[in-house]
Design a protein that fits this description.
The chain is mainly α. Helices cover 72% and strands 6% of the residues. The protein has helices at 32-59, 66-95, 102-135, 140-143, 146-164, 166-172, 189-193, 201-234, 239-247, 250-272, 278-303, 305-316; strands at residues 7-11, 14-17, 19-22, 99-101, 181-182. Helix 1 runs parallel beside helix 11 and helix 3 runs parallel beside helix 8. The termini are far apart.
């Protein structure tokens, strides 16, 4: 039975289930095969788009600049987020392969949440990049050196890992003596917490504090950057200069909206949306995993002339 996985020997305060079972999209099981079509299409587009973006930035010397280094980091993060979850989701849809070991579930959850935090931090770093480029253009090269960009990347990675390292240990200490069916397409912290048959207040509090700390702090500093950018842009003499300056932020703003809107909605529904149909929450959570990795290369490729020209040259053998 799917409702009762075998239990391994107890460890400390509880017992590890040998296996969890991912439900997929509750209530829409009959449509899994059809739903897999857009999922697979978006996954392939995300892989192709981000790999093309990485290759373009690596092989084009004119793109070896701070903004494009950050964009390459974003592409790497999107690739990890996609490949960590989507292959398993598709295996559920295509082959009804719902089983996932407890340890594999913890690893998937760790990568999912840590790289989501990493993406949030990187979007903040990209906002800082736009702030320096527009508000302090003469100091741009001296402020954002390769060394500084490397340190920003390492700090972002350390922040994500340190905040997420406790989660697997917090989940491992809990007993799972009831159902081992996760009502989701992938292993996610709150979905796993709901299966525990013990007091989970600390897990809930830690999850909420981290979410508020990451989303709240990052969004606050991103907003502050754009307030300063807006003031600098509006102080320019002509409308043409204003549009040209602000157009450099368009792709980044799209990336912010594509990332944060689903994150905030998913988190709110998880904790406060008890009357929302489960499949709505699951679809929104999957949208958050699939849409930004697919759209970021497209948006940046279309909006950034250097990338657009290089990609056209790569695929069509000509530039415009």
């Amino acid at each position: 039975m799917l409702l009762h996985g075998n239990l391994s020997a107890p460890n400390g305060t509880g017992s590890d289930p040998a296996m969890f079972f991912l439900m997929g999209i509750p209530g829409l099981e009959a449509l899994h095969l059809w739903i897999s079509i857009p999922f697979c299409s978006m996954f392939i587009m995300a892989l192709l788009g981000n790999c093309t973006l990485l290759y373009t930035i690596k092989t084009e010397p004119s793109l070896h600049k701070p903004m494009f280094y950050f964009l390459a980091m974003l592409a790497l993060i999107d690739l990890v987020l996609s490949t960590t979850t989507v292959p398993k989701i598709l295996s559920i849809f295509w082959f009804n392969s719902r089983e996932i070991s407890f340890n594999a579930c913890l690893v998937q959850m760790f990568f999912l949440h840590s790289f989501s935090i990493l993406e949030s931090t990187l979007l903040l770093a990209m906002a800082f990049d736009r702030y320096v480029a527009i508000c302090k253009p003469l100091k741009y090269v001296t402020i954002l050196t390769n060394s500084v960009i490397g340190k920003i990347g390492l700090v972002a990675l350390a922040r994500a890992v340190l905040l997420m390292i406790p989660l697997p240990f917090l989940l491992r200490r809990l007993p799972y003596c009831g159902s081992h069916v996760i009502s989701h397409c992938y292993c996610e912290h709150m979905a796993m917490v709901k299966l525990a048959c013990a007091d989970t207040r600390f897990n809930n509090i830690y999850g909420i504090v981290v979410a508020l700390f990451i989303v709240g702090l990052d969004l606050m500093f991103i907003s502050l950057s754009y307030v300063k950018i807006l003031r600098a842009v509006l102080s320019l003499a002509s409308k043409e200069e204003q549009l040209k300056a602000f157009s450099t932020c368009g792709s980044h703003l799209c990336a912010i909206l594509a990332f944060y809107v689903p994150v905030i909605l998913t988190s709110a529904i998880h904790r406060f949306g008890s009357h929302v149909a489960p499949h709505v929450h699951i679809l929104l959570a999957n949208f958050y995993l699939l849409f930004p990795p697919m759209m970021n290369p497209i948006v940046y490729g279309v909006k950034t002339k250097q990338i657009r020209d290089r990609v056209l040259l790569l695929f069509l053998g000509k530039s415009f």
